[in-house]
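Structure, all two chains, one model.
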Amino acid sequence: MEIKFIIIITVALFFIALVQLMKIYDLAAKVRGEKSQEKVSRSENMLMANLMLVFMVVFFGFVIWLISKYGSNSGLYTSATIHGREIDELLMFNWWIILPVFFITNTLLFGFSWKYYHREERTALYYPHNNKLEAVWTIVPAIVLAFIVIYGLMTWNKIMYNQEKGEIVEVYGYQFGWIVRYSGVDNTLGKADYKMVSATNPLGVITESTIKDTYIEIDQRVNDIDSILSNNINDDGEYLLPESKVDKLQEELDRHKRRKYRIEASIDRKENNVNVYESSNDDIIVQEIHLVKDQPYTFKFRSKDVIHCPWFPHFRAQINAVPGMETSFALTPTITTAEMRADPDVQKHWENINVIHNERKRRIGEEEERVLFDYVLMCNKICGAGHSNMQLKVIVETQEEFNNWIENNGDNKRLTFSGQEVSWSKTKEQASL
Amino acid sequence: MAHDTHHHKESFITKYLFSQDHKMIAKQYLLTAIFMGAIGITLSALFRMKLGWPDERFPLLESILGSDAAPDGLLDSNWYLGLVTLHGTIMVFFVLTGGLSGTFSNLLIPLQVGARDMASGLLNMIAYWLFFLSSALMAASLFIETGPAMAGWTVYPPLSVLAEFQPGSGLGMTLWLLSMTVFIASSLIGGINYIVTILNLRTKGMTMTRLPLTIWAFFITAILGVLSFPVLLSAAVLLLMDRGFGTSFYMSDIVTSSGALDATGGSPILYEHLFWFLGHPEVYIILLPALGMTSEIISTCSRKPIFGYRAMIGSMLAIGFLSFIVWGHHMFLTGMNPFLGGVFTFTTLLIAIPSAVKAFNYITTIWKGNVIMTPAMLFCIGSVSTFISGGLTGIILADSALDISQHDTYFVVGHFHIVMGMTAILGMFAGIYHWFPKMYGKSMNKRMGMVHFWITIVCGYGVFLPMHFLGEGGLPRRYYENTNFPMFDHFLDLNIMISIFASVGVIAQVIFFFNFFYSIFRGPKSSQNPWNANSLEWTTPVEHVHGNWIGEIPTVHRWPYDYSKPGKDTDFVPQHIPLDDNEEEH
């Protein structure tokens, strides 16, 4: 409390001092015979004009320093995907237009402000318009922009109309993490529905057995609630529980019943088509993304709760994951994690990062560690408290390493969704169906 | 049309509180905006502390925000998002829309077109008090235990719908939506009033092509607002219904911890379309008034006519029109049809053309001028510089293909803070310094104004230029901390630098607050036309009178930019001076 009091007193004193200083300043100005605050004196004009020039130099120096320190060494390196390299080229093309314009126009602005500062003996040029000049700076930007638009749209179309040809991997976002599903040998994801999501079926995949399990789960909960309600009722038919609790339970009861009805009505189609759920049999659910170098992939994104945005910075790839719709993004990784780590630039950069990283660890009293370069998936759309830590490791590797990973989960064999041992015979040619 | 100019005695309440006089209402808007602005920038300084020094504990945070928000001086991650959300909302809507348009449209439209007051003084008063009410509601949401709205200033559903997704989506979000609903009503009433006044109450001789560019800017701004704010209102109402009445306009296929929700068939993308249909014109609702005032002040202080008057009007009209067909560039990555993405890329990049025309016209106006470095002029030069610098990086973000690697990173934060935030704030400061004598009949201290400018521009660029490089490094915005990813560790020192610039920049605004309030009470009395300007507001007496002019409203004979016209004795010829024989208009 005392500290707050002292702070308030200090601030108050500071303002009183300022007011007194201003009074002295005003009095002194009157004594000197200065007319008012409205006229800017010659020396002030000159000072401001010179400061314009100084500012311009410092400003440009700052930009150049930032470019030299972070421009070529942003931390994302060469794009690790085919389309990403095209984005990077387009970006460079844009920078080469933007930066000269930036320097030239700012030079003109600050330069003119410096050169033409006010002096009594000068007169400004009466120059209200010049149609030719105005036409020039309408048409020239239009032409330059035409190049930017055409090049940009060509790249955009190439990337976005190329969406359906790789091996399909699903990424499912939730608060706050990701679940990954590989589509298996048939390269088709088994159907999923949000109404089927439960603790044992986090993706809501639809199969004969998950439908059965869901019914059992719902029935059990309905019975539980029914028995709670019927055990707490007296002979007059009044509940012994607080009213709010009863309302809550009844609401939940209704919701479970509706859910079951909706599953029966819209999902449970087993009678009509025996094979409808088979594509999920070979699906594999994992907690890490492994990709094979030079293999085209089509990522499918769904979200459980709010909008997320899967963002692979090193792949220059992102698209929103929106509840209620499926989005997709195709990419082909071209550099393995190991190759990236062996790159001299990356090594140098990560040595520096290790120094900074462990300096901080020491400062906050945590154990030091050696951090290595890794591809990563993060969330890039505000999604709540854990938004800044929705990370998933991504590993790009060779076909053999990948096969080994997807077939084995540590010492055990990895199982498919239907409980079979994974046997990944796919090679690159077979996979790009 | 005749307006009584007799003076009746006014009580304190009718003069200072429920005034229908446009000059008093302008001052009310300004004071409210300054108050909200102080909150808005303080919030940014507070969350920058967390970003600059992620591991430090600041007892200051706990004493300001309370122990819910910053237990033991460590900002809570939900509250971090709450501060970010309210900072954005307050700066965008309350300072740069309500504050900027409200202050200067009200002050300058009647004075510069030559009218006794706004078309409807009553509506004008209602608009202000609705604005005040919405400001109070928004500020009040900071004092709720569960915190203010936390879903970002765009409040995308479903995050903003259920308190289960984040605590701020409970009462805080309800207050946000109520406040915005009232705010929209206020700006619609205000906007219609501005449009009607400009169209109907111009004095004799004041043709549309003799209007100062400020008025053109306010006019186009008001039209943009009247056409786009209703769409935001509908978005807000539908969101209220999704939150309170069980509809599912924006919700589908959602699973919460208590199981699958009933909502089906809606789409959050619908909300994004509705929001950005306002959201993009909103950028120009913020920018155009600042650019209009910049045009006026640059011309006056360069003692030189604005270059390309008609081109300036044309480019503002073009920007205004285009601003309605570019909203999709905020949504390139929502999964919408790539063809649409292409269309929005094209229309967005078109805006660069009228913007380039404006920038070059400003520079040409200064060229061979006789530039008086008043604080207002300094802020205008700064404003043109940020308009150029920020506009150029917009070319990158407009490109849908590049947006794939820049979207929602700090590159975006840097870009829009420079082009929209700084340009508009600097323009607003310019307007305050320039028209302060008209508002209060006093002058502000020029030296303090100069110091204020230099610290502000240095800190502004110091904060937002480095952010572009954070974005190029892939750092997403709205991250509570960047330390979860070792790949961002090499940005630790850059973030400290940004935070230092931010705190210095925020603290430096004390110079402005002090200068402003000191000058209201103790500033030297100003002269009638302190900047030797041409427009009509400087023909009114220094002391405010009801009806603005004591006698007849002056008749207008020329455009407002006859500065340094050859063959004249003075370097300015006010609008009400008749043309000489054989004198060409311009």
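Chain B has one domain: 22-539.
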